Amino acid sequence: MICRFTLDSATEFLLGKCVSSLSAGLAYPKNSPPGQDKDYTDHPANVFARAFSDAQSNATFRGGFGTLWRLAEFWSDRVKKDMEVCHRFIDPILKDALQMERSMKEAGQVRTEEKGAFEDTLLGHLVSCTEDPIVIRDETLNILIAARDTTASTLTFLVYMLSQHPHVLKRLRAEVLSTVGNSRRPTNEDVRDMKYMRAVINETLRLYPPVPLNVRTSVEAVLWPGVNGDSPIYIPPKTRTLYSVFLMHRRKDLWGPDAEIFDPDRFLDERLKYLTSNPFIFLPFNAGPRICLGQQFAYNEMSFFLVCLLQNFSSITLAEDVQTRRSAEWTKGTGHNSQEKVIVRHHFTMYVDVSTSFLES
Ligand code: HEM
Prior knowledge:
Its cofactor is heme. The protein has 361 residues and is mostly helical. 50% of the residues lie in helices and 7% in strands. The chain has 16 helices and 6 strands. Strands 1-4 form a two-stranded antiparallel sheet. Strands 2-3 form a two-stranded antiparallel sheet. It is globular. It binds protoporphyrin IX containing FE.
C-alpha cells in the first residue's frame, strides 16, 4: 500500500499526472488467497510494481559482474522482460507530455513556471529540453526509483517500528494531535514544529537506510586512516569502492553502546553529541555535491503520511503470520537480526520481503 502511495505522490509531483494506483484497493501478501486472484495480480498497479521491483533486483545482480555483465547475459537479458512492462506503463504518460509540448509550441503559447502547472514538473522541464523519447524515459524512470522506492522503504520500516514500539507511537500520536488536530491537513509549519516526528523518521533512516550500500570511484590514489588501531588502507586510483551505510549507522564506536536499539530520543538528548561532532556518521541522503535532491520533499511526504496515519489509527499490529519465515539459524543469532520480525532485503533500495509467506512454508 505504501509503494502505491509513494508511486501516486511521485507521479503527481514529478510527471504532473497521478497514476492513481491506490485506487487498486487493498494490497495482499503474494501467497494469500486474495493475493493470487487474477483480478488482483493483473491490476496495472500491481503489474507495474512487480516488474519495477524485479527489474531492480536483476539489475543489482548484474552490477555484481561489473563491466563484464554482458558476457554473463550472453544468451538472455535478465532485465528486458520487466523493463518492457515498465515501459508500457510509463510510455503513454510521456507520449501525452511530448504531444502537449508540441501543441503548445505550434500554438505559440508561452511556457509558465507557475507552481503546480505541468511546465513546473520534472517531466515538463524534460520535454522542453529534448524530444528524445529514450532520454525522457530513462530520466523519468531514474527519478521514479530515487523518489518512490526510497520513501516507500522508509515508510514501511517506520510503520514496522511503530508496531514494535507502542510507546513511540503513543508519543508521536500525541504530538500529531496536539499540533495538527485529528482531521486537518498538516502545513509546512506543523511539520517543522513536530520535533519528535523528525526524530522518529531519522531513527528509522539510521537503522534502515533506504540506500544501504553505496559506491565511489577514487580519482587519485589515497590512504584511508585505519580504524581502531588497524593499519591504514591504500586505495589505488580509479578504484570502485563499496561502502555500507547500513553497517556504519549501527556502529557502536560511532553511535554509542546502544547503537542497535531503536530509540528516537538519541536525536534529541545528549546522545546527539555523536552526530554533531561527526555529521558524516549519518548518511541516509549521502552528502557533498551529490547529496539527495529530494531530501526536503521526502521529509514532507513522510511527515504528511504519518500525520494522516496517526490521525486515524491509535495502534498498529504486525501481522506476523504473513511475514516471510526466517530460518532457525537466523533467529538463534545474537545481533539485532535475531529480533527482526520481517525479512529485510535490498536491491538498489531496502525493502521488506513478503515474497514467500505463510502458505509456502
Ligand atoms: C527517504 C527518502 C530518500 C532517501 C533516503 C534518498 C537517498 C538518496 C541518496 C543516498 C542519494 C545519493 C546517491 C549517490 O550516492 O549518488 C540520492 C540521490 C538523489 N535523490 Fe534521493 N532519497 C530520497 C528521496 C528522494 C526524493 C523524494 C527525490 C525526488 C523528489 C529524490 C531525488 C534524488 C535525486 C535526483 C538524486 C540524485 C542527485 C545527484 O546525483 O546529483 N530522492 N537520494
